[in-house]
Amino acid sequence: MLRIHFTDVDLARTRLASAPDPLFEIAASLHRFQSRRGRWAYAGWYRDSRVRLREAGLERALRSILLPLYPRAAYFPDFLTPVDAVEGLDAGLESILATPPKRVVAEMATLDRIVGAPAWAGQLAGRETRKEFAGVLRAYYNAVVVPHKEHVRARIEGERAARCRGLLDGGVEGMLAGLGPMLRWRPPVLEVAYPRQAADRDLHLNGRGLTLAPSYFNWGEPVAFADPGLPPVVWYSLLHEPEARSLSEEPGRSLTHLLGRARAIALHAAAGGATTGEIARAAGVSASAASRHATVLRDAGLTTTVRNGPSVLHTLTPTGASVLRAALADVEGGPGR
After folding, report:
1. Smallest Cα–Cα separation from 62: which of 111, 26, 17?
2. Which of 40, 112, 144, 249 gets the most CB atoms within 10 Å of its CB?
3. Do 283 and 265 meet the contact criterion of CB atoms below 8 Å apart?
4. Burial of 89 (0-12, 13-18, 19+ CB in 10 A)
5. Final residue of a structural domain among 149, 165, 183
6. pTM for this structure?
7. 320 within 8 A of 270, measured Cβ to Cβ
8. pLDDT tens, position by position, for the chain (337 residues)?
9. Residue pair 305/298 in contact by the 8 Å Cβ criterion
10. In a domain, 242, yes or no
11. Cβ count within 10 A of residue 14
12. How far is residue 148's CA from residue 150's CA, in Å, rounded to a whole number?
C-alpha cells in the first residue's frame, strides 16, 4: 500500500489532470499486452491494435524494445512518463530527450535489479539513441492510441465530470472520497492500493500538492512515481463496462433510434453531465425509460457513462457534442455553441 500524507496546503494544491497523459497511456496500453486481466474491457481495442501493429511493421519493436522497458511489474523507469506529458505527446517526448544521462543510467540499473533490463538499455543514456526510441514511441502511439483517441478522451472527460461533482458537493476531500475502490480517503491520508509484490511506503507531499490523472488503459492498481522527489502524481483506473460491440460495426442501426423528444432532451442534459434520475426528470419519463434512452445514446457513441458513487453520470462524447451543436444551430439559425 502507498500512503499519501496531506497537509491543508496539499489539499489546496490537489488537482485533476486536464487531459489524458499520452505517455502514460502508452505505458498502460503496453501492460494490456502483458496480461489477460481486464481483457474483456479492451477486447475491441486489443484485436484492432494487433492488426495495426502488424500493418505498421511494429511487431518486432513491440517485442524487443517496448515490452522490455515497460514491464507489468513493480517497477518501470520514471523518466518514461514525465509529468509534463499531459501537455501533449510532443512535450512528453521532449522531456524524455532532456532527461540527464545520469538519471537514465540510474533508473535502468533499478529496472535491471528489480525486473531485469534488456542488454542494450544503457544505450538510452545517449541522446541519439533516445531520439530513435522517441520515434518508436510516436509510431506506436499513432498505431494503437490515436485511432481510439476520441473514445479515450470521452471516457476521461466523463470521469472528470464525476469528480467535479464530488468537488462541488464536498470540496477537495469530497473529490478524494469518490475516487473508487483502489483509493481510500482516510483524512489526512490517501491510501492507494499497490501490487502485492510492492513494499508498503509513505509519501509525504510537504506542500507540493498532488496531481490525479485518470487513465483509460490502466487496469487495477493505481501507479505513482518510484522516486518520492519527483512531482507527486497518481494515475488511476477508470471503471470500465463491457463493450457490447465496436462502434464501427453497426453505426446506422443505433443512430436511427435517436429520433424523438425524450432522447433529444437526454442528449441536451448530458451536455452538463446528468445522472439517470436527472434525465428522467428533465424528459418527464420514468427512471427505467431514461436508462433505456441513455443506453441508446451511449451505444451510438454520443454519450459516455461513468459511475459516481451509487449513481451513474452521463456526459457527451466529442461526437455527441457535435450533434448537439448542429441541432442548436438549426434551431437558432446560426452556429451552435
Report:
1. 26
2. 144
3. yes
4. buried
5. 149
6. 0.76
7. yes
8. 899 999 999 999 999 998 899 999 999 999 999 998 888 889 889 999 999 999 999 999 999 999 999 999 889 999 999 998 988 999 999 999 999 999 999 999 999 999 999 999 999 999 999 999 999 999 999 999 999 888 888 888 888 888 888 888 889 998 998 887 889 999 999 999 876 666 789 999 999 999 999 999 999 889 999 999 999 999 999 875 544 443 333 334 444 455 578 888 888 888 778 888 888 888 888 888 888 888 888 888 888 888 777 778 888 887 888 777 766 654 444 433 3
9. yes
10. no
11. 21
12. 6
Is residue 11 located within the same domain as residue 156?
yes
Contact between residue 220 and residue 233 where contact means Cβ atoms under 8 Å apart: no
Sheet holding 223-224, edge to edge: 15-16, 211-215, 233-237, 223-224
The rounded distance, in Å, linking the Cα atoms of 73 and 108 is: 14
- The answer to whether position 245 is within a domain reads no
Residues 58, 333: Cα–Cα separation, whole Å: 49
Q: Which residues pair with 247 in a beta bridge?
A: none
Q: Which residue has the cell 487513465?
A: 215
Q: What are the grid coordinates assigned to 158, written together?
A: 466523463
Rounded CA separation 116/107 (Å)? 12
* Structural contact between residues 296 and 150, judged by C-beta atoms closer than 8 angstroms: no
Domain count of the fold of the chain: 3
CA–CA separation, 90 and 161 (whole Å): 26
Label the pairing between strands 274-275 and 223-224: unpaired
Residues of the domain holding 13: 2-17+151-237
Structure letter (DSSP) for residue 304: E
From residue 6, alpha-carbon distances to 78, 150, 172, 230 in Å are: 22, 34, 11, 16
Indicate the residue among 207, 237, 267 that finishes a domain. Answer: 237
What's at 58, amino acid-wise?
A: L
In DSSP terms, 5 is beta-bridged to: 189, 204
